[in-house]
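S1.2 Input.
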Amino acid sequence: MSMKRIAEHNKKMKITQKAIDLLNEALKSNAESEKYFLERAAILGKFASNLESEGVDEHEPCMTKLHAVISSYLQSKGSFEEIAKEFADMQPPILEEIFLLQSLKKNAIEAFQDGGALTTKKKTRLFACFL
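S1.3 Output.
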């Protein structure tokens, strides 16, 4: 095998591995973000629950404000849960892309070892979750 062919193969493998590494970082970051928003939602839920246990009488002026605070906490809790779900929904397409790239890399290595070459078309995919 020519040195040029080996160098091209190694370059393709490095590029593929870099893409795999970046997707793994995105996966980790998404998991951390999902956890963060779920924790914040739980905290807001606990705050709202604690305030509700105080007994809200909507007819007293200060209690009306307290009721508004509780409603705000519950609304924010719901928003945080939705954001966490969006991060969770991003995981499967990222995992699929990692799997596909790892398979491509494995097949390219095997083809190269057998003296062949694996060719690919340049292709980019847009994930709906990143739009």
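S1.4 Remarks. Residues 3-113 form one domain.
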